[in-house]
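input
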Amino acid sequence: MNIQEIIDTVNKGLAVDGHGPFESSNETESFHRTVVRGTLAGRDISVEIDEDDETSEYQVSITLRDLDTDQPIGRGNGGPTLQDAGSIFQWKNAVSDLKLL
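output
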């Protein structure tokens, strides 16, 4: 999956509520998963993009994870595209949860 597209999708979602930016530091890719690591709200996080070829409705899902605690801080139901998954992800709640850690 295109890394810059992931970063742009995350930052677009965060900007809706005045959060961000997500600053990328590195990334890894495998067959069905792309992980982009970086910082948000002063914490190290990962953005995990999972792709499921079996389900067209929820083909792409997003998970944010705090890297210090390895705790998921947000997960979306997903959508047929990265943009759809990003538009329904609860960015505001994820940032609020991150600030509580």
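quick obs: The first helix runs from residue 3 to 15.
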